[in-house]
Amino acid sequence: MNFDYSEEQKMLVQSLERTLAKTYDFETYRAQIADKTSHDPALWASLAELGIMAMPLPESAGGFDGDHTDIALISAELGRRLVPEPYVSNVVVAAYILGELGGDAFADDLAAIGMGEKRFAAGFYEPGERHNPLALNTKAEKSGDGWTLNGHKAVVLGADTAGAFIVSADAGGTSLFVVPADTDGVTVRQYQLLDGRGAADIVLNNVSLPADALLGEAGGAEEVILEAVDRGAAALVADSVGAIEEVIELTKDYLRTRTQFGRPIGSFQVLAHRMVDLLVEYEQAKSMSMEASVEATNENGDARKKAVSAAKAKVGAVSRKFGQESIQLHGGIGMTDEYALGSYVKRLLVNETLFGDTDYHLERYGRL
Amino acid sequence: MELSLTEAQVAFRDEVVAFLSDSLPEDIKDTQKQGGHLSKEQMQRWHKILGDKGWSTPLWPEEHGGTGWSPVEYAIFDEECYRIGAPRVLPFSVSMLGPVLINFGNDEQRERFLPGIRSGEDWWAQGFSEPGSGSDLASLKTTAVRDGDHYIINGQKTWTTLGQHGDWIFCLVRTDADAAKPQTGISFILVDMNTPGVEVRPIITLDGSHEVNEVWFTDVKVPAENLVGQENMGWTYAKFLLQNERIGIAGVGQSKEQLVGLKRLAAAEKKNGQPLIEDPGFKAKLSEVEIELRALDLTNKRMLVETERGMDPGPVSSMLKIRGSEVAQRLYELKMEASGLYALPFQPEAGDAGWNDELVGTLAQAKSAPHYLNTRKISIYGGSNEIQRGIISKMMLGF
Fold first, then answer.
1. Cystine design at A153: which of A20, A202, A266, B146 (Cβ 3.0–4.6 Å)?
2. Residue B284 and residue A366: Cβ atoms within 8 Å?
3. How far is residue A135's CA from residue A226's CA, in Å, rounded to a whole number?
4. In degrees rounded to 5, what are phi and psi of residue B277?
5. Is the CB of residue A291 less than 8 Å away from at least one CB of chain B?
6. Is B319 exposed, middle or buried (0-12, 13-18, 19+ CB in 10 A)?
7. CB count, 10 Å around CB of A182?
8. CB-CB under 8 Å, B294 with A1
9. Which of B94, B105, B120, B132 is nearest to B190 (CA)?
10. Crossing angle for the helix pair B252-268 and B313-339, nearest 10 degrees?
11. What residues form DSSP beta bridges with B376?
12. ipTM of this complex
C-alpha cells in the first residue's frame, strides 16, 4: 500500500496552486458571481495552458493519459479556490463519453476539449426522477436517416456555457446523442447554482438530429452513463475535500482569534470538541476520496461502484456536517455573504447533491 | 498511490493465515468466535503458542523479540486473528509495560521481566486509575514511601482489568507529595501481587462480567529495585505508554469481524416475512456503519504509514481511538437491535468454556445485549474520548 502522489502530480498541483493564487482570490470569485458569470475565458485559457484539460484525455487526442488520482488533485484545488469553471462537467464527464463512444467522428472535438477550445455538457437526469441517471422519459425516434428528440434534462452542470450537449434518450434502449446548443427546438434555460457554478435545464422539442449524432449503438449507453456519473461523482468528492480543507482553516483561525468573555472562543471546550469532531470526520472523508479516485477507473464495475458510492455517501454526510457546524462555530459572521465561509458551505451542498446524493449512494452501496 | 496489498503483503497474509489455522486450538477458537469469556488458562495457552512462534511481541524492537513487521503488516495480522478467531494477547504486558521497560528500565529488569511477557507466563495488571483519579490521573493518591531498600505502598487502584488473575501489577504511585506540579511527584513501580497487603476485590459490570477489580495496598513492601527508571519520572513513562498504543487502537480487525457477525444475524432475523437485512430502514443503517468502517480502515492504515514517516503521533492515536470506538460501539448496538426480543434474556455466561445451560434464543442473540453494554467502556478507558478530544484540540487550536 502507498498513499503518495507522484512527483509529477505534486508539480502539477503546485503550478495550479500558483496560477490560482495569482489570478483567483475570494474577491475575484465574489465579483464574478455578482456579475452572474460562471465562466471566465481568460482564466479558462490559463487553466488549459497548465495542461489540466488535456490531463485525462488519451494520447491520441493530444492528452496525457492521466488517471483519476490526477483528476482528484485538480478538483481539490478548484474546490479549495471556489473556481466555478465547468471543469468536471466538460473534462471529466463529457470527455470520457466522447472518448468511449465518439470514435473518429468526435476525435477533433475531444482534442478541442483538451486545448480548452470547446465545452460539452452531459445531461442524464430528468425532472421528477431525482437522482437516477437511467430513468428516461426523453424519447428519440427514428426519422428518415436521422433522429427526432423530445424531452427535458434537469440541472445539467456546465450547460449554461457549453457549445454542445450530450443527452441520454430512449431510442429503444438507453442511448446518447450529441446536440449542438443552437439546434432548432433546443431551449436552454440558464442559471447559476447556489455556489455560482453554471447549469441549465435543457428542453428538447422535436429536435432533428443527423444519424451521426448517435454515440455508439442505439440502446448501448447504460454502462457508459453509469461510469461517467461515477467519474463525475469521484471528482466532486475530491472537490469537496479541497473545500473542506479551506473550511477547516477558516474555522480554526476564527476559533483562535475571536474573543468573547475575555478569551478566544476556541478555549471553550464546548466549541473545541466540536471542532475536533470535524477534524476526525475530515480524515475519514479524505481517505474515502483517495479510494474513490483510485477505483473510479477500475474495470471491475462493482468494485468501482462500491468505492464511489461509499465515498459519495460518506463525503456527502461529512459535508453537510461541516456546513452546519462551521456556521454555528462562527456565529453571526458565518451567516454573511461577505465572509468566505458561506460560499464554501454552498459549494459543498452543490457537490453533495450532483451525480447522486447521499441517500442515492447509500442505497446503491447496500444493493451491491 | 496504490491502495491494494502488495505481493509481499499478500504472501505475508497467507503465512499468517497458515500459522493461525494450524496452531489455534479448537476450544479457544470456539470460545472466541462465540463471544464467550476466555479463561486464564486459554489466554495463557494461546499466548505461549504465539510466543514460541516469536509473534507475541511483534512491535517490540527486534533485539528484544519483535518481528520487524511494518504497521500495515501488523494490521493484516490483527485482522486475520479476528477473522480466524484467534484471541489477541492482553495489551497490559505486551503493549504497555514491555515498551516502557525496553525504553526506561535497566538491564536487570529487562532480563527478569521480558521473557515472562513474551511467553505470557507472567500475568500483568495495570494499576493507574484510582477512585478519585480517572480522567485527572495525575491527581492520584496511592503513596510509595522509601524505607531503606524498600518502598512502602498504601492506597487503592481501580478498574484493574483481569487483575483477579494477576501475578504482577505495574503502578503509578506518588513518591513526592510536595512536588511543584502533581505530574512531577509520580513514579512507576512493579509490584508482585502475592506480596502481603495486596488485596483484589471484584467489580461486576452491568453486563454481568467480572473483568475489572479494585486493588488495595496496605503497607505493601516492595524492593526498591522494582522502581522503573528514575523516581518522580513516572508520568513521563505513562505518557509514553499511552501514546505508544496507537497501532491497533482503532480496533479495525475486531470491528470487521463484528460486521460479519451483524450481517449473519440480520440475514437470519425476519421482518415482515423478509430477512431483516433486506429491510430498507435496517439496510441504510447497515450500509452507513459499513462505510464508516471502510473509511476507518483506510484512515488507520494511512495514518500508521504517515506516522512511521514522522507525522506527530499524538493526534493520530487520539483520532483513531475516538472514531474506532464510535464505529465499534455502533456495530454492537446494531447487533443488539437486530436480535430483537431475544436480546433480552440475560445469559451473561453463554458461550464461556464449560457453560452448558439450556440456551434461550441463539448464542449471537444471547451475547448481543451483554456485548453492547460491555463495550460502552471503550469510549471511557485508555483516556476517555473527551480527554482525547482535549489532546487534539490542544494540538490543533493551541488551547
1. A202
2. yes
3. 12
4. -65, -15
5. yes
6. buried
7. 9
8. no
9. B105
10. 20
11. none
12. 0.94
